[in-house]
Amino acid sequence: MTPIWLKHTAAGIELSLYCQPGAKLTKVVGTHDGHLKVSLQAPALENKANAALLLWLSKQLRVPQKQVHLISGQASRHKRVEIWGPISAEQVAIALKP
Could you tell me the domains of the chain? Predict the structure, then answer.
């Protein structure tokens, strides 16, 4: 069963995330209101948290960083990220399991 925070799109896989910047560690901490909740070590200043999120996701999912794209939520805690490339929804769900 596919989690509510993950869906297929025409281009790849879309993640619905709730991010908390300024944490001690970058990690998945659970779910929040239908979103995957991620704590980010980077502060929410000068786009550092968004850059850290995209880099962390590319490493966790083992895809090149250019295949991880922020769709919306540039200045919000609620973010939508799209993943392109040869990765299945099941692989994403396992790699980001809360």
Answer: 6-95 (3.30.1200.10)
